[in-house]
Amino acid sequence: MLLAYFVLSEMPDPVIHHIELCVFDAEKTLNRLKKFGFNLFAKKQTAFCKQLVARLNTVIFLITEKNVHYKKENSESKKNFGEEIRSHKTEPLTLCCDHSPHVDTVFNLALNVKRNDVKDIYERVCKEGGQIIPPTEISDENGTVQYSIVKSKCGNVIHTLLNIDDYNGEFLPGFEILDSCQSTSKRDLNICGIDHVTLASYSGHSEKVINFYEKCFRMNRFKITSNDDETNGLIISEGVGLRLRAMEYWRCSETGLSYRNEESNQNNSFLLVVVESLEGQTNCNVEEFLRHHRGEGIEHIAFKCNNIIETVSKLKSNGVVFRNPPTAYYDELRNLNKMSGLGVDLNRLSQYGILIDNEDDSTDKSPEKKYLMQIFAKPLFDLKTFFIEIIERSGARGLGSGNILALVRSIREEERRNKMKSEAKTQEIIKENFTSPRQC
């Protein structure tokens, strides 16, 4: 697992403007997101596609369903990235399934950037040979939005770079905003933003992904823990086969980027993670995503909250299904001295299946105990691809490397239980057929 850490500094708007999903059934996807507390906020319908905007407090998901019956004009001549979109002015802001049909996917991490960054990042991508839609503008009665679209080096992942300084609308030009009773989000879930976004890449390819973000988005190395080696990163073997490496992303008035210090407002920051299997080893979680997704892409997004037990309880009552950790997970925690003094009720965590990881850093002289709690939902789509994580931090800055191991164990235990159930059912059928009287 290779991890790139991007922390963006304080901004007037959330760093992530929205996340775009490209799906075959927008209504079905919206209904699934409603279980997480999302509500329909805005919509747009054109000949090319149907778009629904779902909002959960500051988190916005744009669900795009492409019209599969739409006939492209002169399709044979349009081979460049985004050429189809540029030729159809009704769809200037989406590249959903631009070239060919795909599985349901989360593919666009749209970012709020400063005015100069739209052009500056575009020019850096050009120098790296990247594929892009150049800076352009789109307007309506609420003002003008400047944007560019950049294709990353990770599968189908793109970034829409948006500057909304001159726009007073509630979302983007061309969208119909619904009335307040429909668009009001469920604020009692305590979801307060996006903590991190994780990309899954092929083994050995994540270095190219990181180099792209380093050169085009100007990132620097970020040390996750004291065990994070400058060259090799943080390796989690033990049958997991993952490498973690972090990079930091920031802004400033002179260059578009600036350091984020410890006192920065973390409500306006997020982490971008790149994961891969170690060479010579296979990580079942990453490889399963790559197989079902048919390539690299956004594996999961973590929502941060202030009270994970309360949030998970409400999500479960809404019908959200989470992965359950192995039965021995909490027994092991009770035997660990480093978990003592955290003031956390392990019985409550066990009741809801919540994982906990203590950030044990020998170089940190602070008396404050730092830890995080997290839980992983089952995949959002029918295939085993994108999923949502819920996380609560108490001073911890990492990702819970111990819980990555627990997650893999839980997946394997789940597969083992399913296999045993299947084998038991097969034996019952065989026994029933053997003992049943023959029909003449």
TrEMBL record:
InterPro entries: 4OHPhenylPyrv_dOase, Glyas_Bleomycin-R_OHBP_Dase, Glyas_Fos-R_dOase_dom, VOC_core. Residues 193-378 form the VOC domain. Pfam families: Glyoxalase (PF00903). Keywords: Iron, Repeat. Its cofactor is Fe cation. GO terms for molecular function: 4-hydroxyphenylpyruvate dioxygenase activity. The keyword Repeat applies. GO terms for biological process: aromatic amino acid metabolic process. The keyword Repeat applies. Belongs to the 4HPPD family. This is VOC domain-containing protein. It comes from Larinioides sclopetarius.
